[in-house]
Amino acid sequence: MNLVFRLAWRNIWRQPRRTWLTTGAMMFSNVLLVIMISLQFGMYGLMIDNTLQAFTGHLQVQAHGYKEDKKMRQTVPDIVPIARSLREQLASDTIAARGSAFGLASSDERSYGIAVFGVEPAYEPGVSTIPGLIQQGRFLHDMDAAEIIIGAVLARNLRVDTGDELTLLGTGRDGSFAAAVVTVVGIFDSGITDLDRNIVEVPLGFFQDVFFMQGSGHQIVINTPVIDEVPELQRKIEALLPVDEGLIVHDWDALQPGLKQAIKADMSSAFFMYGVLVILVAFSVLNTQLMSVLERTREFGVIMALGLTPGRLGRLVLLETAIMGVMGLILGALLGGLVTWWFSLSGFAYPGMEEMAAKFNLPARFYPQVTALSLFIGPAVVFVFSLFAAIYPALRLNRLRPVDAMRVT
User: Which has the higher per-residue pLDDT, 85 or 299?
Assistant: First the structure.
């Protein structure tokens, strides 16, 4: 094996320019793949976090069947004490209780149907970006105050401003008529029309009084700084919940199923472009090895006449390709990893991203995810396809006749 390796090493350096061009093509494609895949994974992480942190959260504790039916009577009893207990036992402030109801908001001039959410003012900023999107006025302060924050679109439709009063009408948990007069203390602008038109928030204590909730609610929302911790956190929360209440812990995939589908669709289009890049590199390797075999036809004929089998010559050609592939893999992964590591520290942004991010209360830069998978999955695929590309030149040696080969000039 040592002799075969030395022969392969000698052969690839017969034409150093051609070898470096082929290895350089592998290395360049590997660098691009490492950077792009890492940036792509980082963008997915940012997209997931920003989508979930806007309102949904990474996890939610709900009553059985509430996610599908959204009925008022499907409640989490004693929701505030349960949320407080989870915050204490998990040592986290990114846990907040909510109540939810559908109602009618009326100003002096107009009325619109809305979704009313009762929130804990002290803890809602840890599970939602809405408190940070207040454009006029302020966020909620008191758990029992008759105050409300509304979206910019709804404020425009109702023709109200901060300080104006709205009348809320709805149905309580027991089927009773729910009505209240609230003061608009804040107007938020998320940039998402549906959110700004349909969502309003009131203090949870006030919500429970108006809608006759008797201390119950509908959601306990939990956020986590690292999305990979969601499965473990879900198991911990399930173990901490009261066993006799029939409560369910839903993760973000169950709460937002369309999000993962959107990521899969984007990955499919991205992997198609990556595939085109890999195939181009494979054809470059095919061209190099085919030229190498053709220019050594006479040499191969002499060796075969001395008794060397075509199979061993084919393995020699594959070994030459493997050596170049390993060189391209190591150099490409190393250089791509260094560039990605630099971006993971300094962040990545493109022109106009800061203005757009500020509008949606999002970070102005995103950071690539440097993992073993993002470092080696691309270069490994290039290496495998390069070996496949070398199979055809290696198989040509099976049709080589020593007598004919030695006559080639």
Answer: 85
Ordered DSSP codes for 316-342: HHHHHHHHHHHHHHHHHHHHHHHHHHH
* 85/217 same-domain check: yes
Q: Which of 223, 251, 273 is the last residue of a domain?
A: 223
Q: Both tokens of residue 76? A: 């989490």
CA dist list (Å): 16 to 13, 24, 57, 296, 349: 5, 12, 56, 16, 39
Closest CA to 212 of 323, 339, 84, 72: 72
Cα–Cα distance for residue pair 222/388, rounded to 1 Å: 48
How many domains does the structure of the chain reveal? 2
pLDDT exceeds 80 at position 366: no
- pLDDT for 403 beyond 80: no
pLDDT of 250 reads 93
Number of other CB atoms surrounding residue 75 within 10 Å? 22
The pLDDT assigned to 69 comes to 86
Q: Report the predicted TM-score, pTM, of the whole model to 2 decimal places.
A: 0.73
DSSP string spanning 50-103? Answer: HHIIIII-SEEEEETTHHHH--TTS-BTTHHHHHHHHHHHHT-S-EEEEEEEEE
Q: In the prediction, which pLDDT does 180 show?
A: 94
Beta partners for residue 100, in sequence order: 117
Residue 304 lies in domain: 2-52+259-406
Q: Which helix (H) or strand (E) holds 358?
A: helix 353-359
Is there a single domain that holds both residue 363 and residue 297? Answer: yes
